[in-house]
Every structure is written in C-alpha cells, then in structure tokens.
Amino acid sequence: MLELKPDTIAGVRCAVYDSGPADARAAVVFVHGNPGPADDWERLAPAAAGFARVLALDLPGFGRAARPRAFDYTIRGYARQLGALIEARGIERVHLVLHDFGGGFGLRWALDHPRQLASLALIDCGVLENYRWHRYARIWQTPILGELFQWLSTARTLRAALNRDNPRPLPRAFTDRIARFADWGHRRAVLKLYRATRDPLAAFPDLPQVRHWQDLPVCVIWGEADPYLPAAYAQRQKDYFPRAEVHVLEGLGHWPFVDDPAAVENILVPFLRRVAT
Q1: Is pLDDT at 209 greater than 80 in this prediction?
Q2: Which of 14, 49, 211, 238 is the most exposed place for a label (fewest CB within 10 A)?
Q3: Rg (CA), the chain
Q4: Are 7 and 16 in contact (CB under 8 A)?
Q5: What pLDDT score was predicted for residue 214?
Q6: Mean pLDDT in the chain?
Q7: Chain segment 154-175, per-residue pLDDT in tens
Q8: Cβ neighbour number for residue 92 with a 10 Å cutoff
C-alpha cells in the first residue's frame, strides 16, 4: 500500500501521497477511478518518484477519504477537488496519469487548466464517444435497484463478480482492499457519481473546440480484454490526441497494472521519464 498521509483538501478530509520535494513546481499526478483508492498506484507511483515529484490521493468517497453528503459527486466536483490539491501543493506543470473514472476527473481539470497540463497518460479511460454503460453502471443508475444492489453486495460477491469479468484472476489482496473500503458512504458516493454521469460527455461541452491537445505528449495503455471500457476506444483517442502512442495489452483487463504490473510499468515509466525530466 502507498504511504499516504492525512490532509484536508478544500475542506474535505483526504489522504495524500506526495513524494516531494515540496518546492518542485512540476509533478506527476495519479488519479484513481471507481472503486479506487490511491493504492491502485502502489507500484507505479513509487517508480515515477525516482525521477519526479509524484502526487496521488484518495478522492472523497474512496479509500481513507471522508464521504461527506454535501460533496459534489460529479465529474466537475471531482475535477475541482483534484485542482484544489494541485493548487495547495503549488504545482504549476502537471503530468496526469488517469484510470477509469479518473479519466473524466482529470480531463475536466485539464480542459479548465490548459496551460498547466504538460502530458497525459490514459489507462483504460479517455474520451468515450457513443459509450454504452456496462451492466453494473446501469444498475447503479437505477433508483431503488441500485440501493438494493449496494446493500446486498458482500466481499464474496464482489470478489466473484470481479474475477468473473476479468480475463485472469485478480490478486486476493486487491479484491480484499476494495471490499475493505466499500462501506455505505463509499457505496452512496458511487450511486451519486454514476447517476450524475449517465452521459459520459455531458461534462465536456467544450470538447469540440479543443485545440491545445494537438501537440500534447500522450500515452494510451489499454487492457485488450477490458469488460467495462472496450479496447476499441484506445485507438480512438488519437482523434483527440494526434501524438498519442497507443498500447493495447493482450489478455489484460480493466486493471492492466494489476493483471501484469511489469507490462504497464515498462511502458508508462519510460514515457513519464521522457516527458517529466
């Protein structure tokens, strides 16, 4: 697990990994998705910390962070929370590494702060045109059914569902960690987030006007057997990021950095070293 320290970001108790040095004005910022938490980056964040300042955090509703009822559990709300961390740590140049819903959070922040974005790494996430939600998302988005599904979920059923969908068995430590943080506050946050995101592109009305992404260094990494976000979206990212290098990893699922940590590290770390040093 990552060594995260308690902090309060924009009034919300969170947990933050910050490799320092504190005066560095550029940083690699890792952003988790659902179900998170920041420990998803337990191998990649320390690897990047060997040559750059690295930040990662448990976002509200996930991991060790608070689950305030009043938080804005939307793409824009999480983008603002991410921005509050970046501002609080004095970061002026950001190299984003995003996964799952972290793609939406990070891309919304990037659109709002184009001059600060230095590079982008997309792991099983990105711009999702004409995307149709997977079956779990559709359940969460349905009132009453979503609540029942969340109430009835157990560590055993969660583990079984993840392993049924994934192309290879997920480590028990990984699924146990997901279950450990899946209290009702987390489950309520998931319901709110998915219900606020029925249209994945609704939070990006300015996307067609984007021009500053044309020359942006981008690395796309996708598990070929991702059951939730089809790998066909990997190559489609070049429609928005023409300079993107695209890597589709055969036989890996939605968490390729869990299925084969070395395969992802061998792609991502050289990319980050190239753009962040």
Answers
A1: no
A2: 211
A3: 17
A4: yes
A5: 87
A6: 96
A7: 999 999 999 999 999 999 999 9
A8: 13
| Tokens of residue 229, six digits | 């976000």
User: What is the per-residue burial (b if ≥16 Cβ within 10 Å, else e) of 40-50?
Assistant: bbbbbbebbbe
Structure tokens at 50: 């060997």
Q: Extract the tokens encoding 114.
A: 């184009």
| Band of residue 197 on the pLDDT scale cut at 50, 70, 90 | very high
pTM above 0.90, yes or no: yes
Q: State how beta strands 12-18 and 218-223 pair.
A: unpaired
pLDDT of 22 > 90? The answer is: no
User: What pLDDT is attached to residue 20?
Assistant: 85
What would be the CATH architecture of the domain defined by 5-133+199-276? 3-Layer(aba) Sandwich (3.40)
In the chain, where are the structural domains located? 5-133+199-276
User: 120: closest CA among 139, 142, 102, 135?
Assistant: 102
